[in-house]
Amino acid sequence: MSDEPLMPEAGDPEDAPVDPEDAPVDVDGDDEGGAPANDDPVVALEAERDELRGTLQRVQADFENFRKRTMRDQADQAARAHEGLVGKLLPVLDSFELAVLNIPSGDLGEAGDKLKKGVELVYAEFFSVLEREGLSRIDAVGKPFDPEEHEAVMRDEGPGDPIVTEQMRAGYRLQGRVVRPAMVRVGPPPG
After folding, report:
1. Which domains are assigned to the chain?
2. pLDDT tens digit sequence for 48-106
3. What's the gap between Cα 44 and its chain centre?
4. In what order do the strands lie in the sheet with 171-174?
5. SS3 for 50?
6. What does the DSSP assignment read for 87-131?
7. Is the separation of the CB atoms in 149 and 182 below 8 Å?
């Protein structure tokens, strides 16, 4: 036997050596040269069914993702609108607070005391409604300065990390998010 590779005769392709990569693969086990039996209508229908089932599952998943995204966007939009309304009401809240602080008690007699009590009740009710909607006041005085929650308009120089020493205007959070930072004066920590 010689070591030369066998060369097929021209015109006899079946005797040619076959590369394993190019060999036909028997995918359905029918031993007919690797070609699936497309002539069988049951197999064709099963393949079509599987393809349609896969398409349906992808469409259902896409729709579910779209539904969730739409609901999340609607909730975000409602929260932004809610935040906008509360932001517009904060100056009214500030005005009520100033009114309560500046009505003198006892100097105006019984009518003045009734007026002060009425304004205090309206202020308390108004603030209570906003609290039920998720509004909370930011406690600032004595806390370390936080630019996310505090707007420093005055600063007393000194060593150490600044803390809030005075609050000029109240700050508020709505459901955990800052809607208005507290206007504050900062200074060095005591001691």
Report:
1. 135-191 (2.30.22.10)
2. 999 999 999 999 999 999 999 999 999 888 888 888 888 899 999 999 888 888 877 66
3. 46
4. 135-138, 171-174, 177-180
5. helix
6. HHHHHHHHHHHHHHHHSPSSTTHHHHHHHHHHHHHHHHHHHHHHH
7. yes
